[in-house]
Every structure is written in structure tokens, then in C-alpha cells.
């Protein structure tokens, strides 16, 4: 069984409100590298959408990922198609 941890989203919200979201992104890059070195599973926003679909919380991931892209949230083509494939939406 994989242990899932959800952290407090307050820094994300407040840094976005003060126009410093890039600072959080830079800080989290170091956390991501550390997590990988500890062999922890890291799940991003698209992965959370996939989990939501798997649990029946949303019917499809594609519209939500497209909505994220529409507000300039970057999702690589590899991740986008990988999530769609895993969600049986290709």
C-alpha cells in the first residue's frame, strides 16, 4: 500500500496572491529532488486528477487538464498523454 500525504495548500494560495508563485516552484524543485532520493512517490496536479477519476469523484480528466492549460498551467505533452492513457481517455 502506498502512503499518500497531502500537505497544507496555504503557501500555494498565498504565494499566488502576492505574485510570488515562481518562488514556491523554485523551492519545491528541491523538495521533489529530495523526495526522489528517498524513493517517495511524488504525485503532481495531473496525477491527483487521475486519482480523482479512479475514485469516481470526476467523470473525465481531459477537460480539467485542458482548463489548467488554459490558465497557463504547464503540463508536458508526455504527462498529458500519459494521464489520458492511464484514464482510458485516448
Explain this structure:
The structure is a single chain. Helix content is 60%, strand content 0%. The protein is mainly α. It has two domains: 7-42, no CATH class; 44-90, no CATH class. The model has no long low-confidence stretch (mean pLDDT 84).
Count the DSSP helices.
5
Distance between the termini: 28 Å
Total number of distinct structural domains: 2
Helix content: 55-70%
Please tell me what the overall shape is.
Answer: globular
Strand and helix order: HHHHH
Gyration radius over CA: 14 Å
Strand content: under 5%
Mean pLDDT: 84
Spans of at least 5 consecutive residues whose pLDDT stays below 50 are: none
Structural class by secondary-structure content: mainly alpha
- What is the count of β-strands? 0
The biggest sheet amounts to: none
Would you kindly provide a brief summary of this structure?
Helix content is 60%, strand content 0%.
SSE diagram, text form:
Blueprint: H1 10-17, H2 21-37, H3 45-54, H4 62-70, H5 77-86
Q: Could you list some keywords that capture this structure?
A:
globular, 90 residues, 2 domains, mainly alpha, 60% helix
Amino acid at each position: 500500500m502506498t502512503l499518500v500525504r497531502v500537505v497544507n495548500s496555504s503557501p500555494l494560495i498565498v504565494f499566488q496572491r502576492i505574485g510570488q508563485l515562481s518562488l514556491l516552484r523554485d523551492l519545491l524543485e528541491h523538495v521533489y529532488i529530495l523526495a526522489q532520493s528517498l524513493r517517495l512517490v511524488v504525485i503532481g496536479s495531473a496525477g491527483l486528477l487521475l486519482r480523482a477519476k479512479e475514485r469516481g469523484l470526476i467523470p473525465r480528466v481531459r477537460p480539467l487538464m485542458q482548463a489548467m492549460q488554459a490558465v497557463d498551467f504547464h503540463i508536458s505533452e508526455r504527462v498529458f498523454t500519459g494521464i489520458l492513457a492511464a484514464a482510458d481517455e485516448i
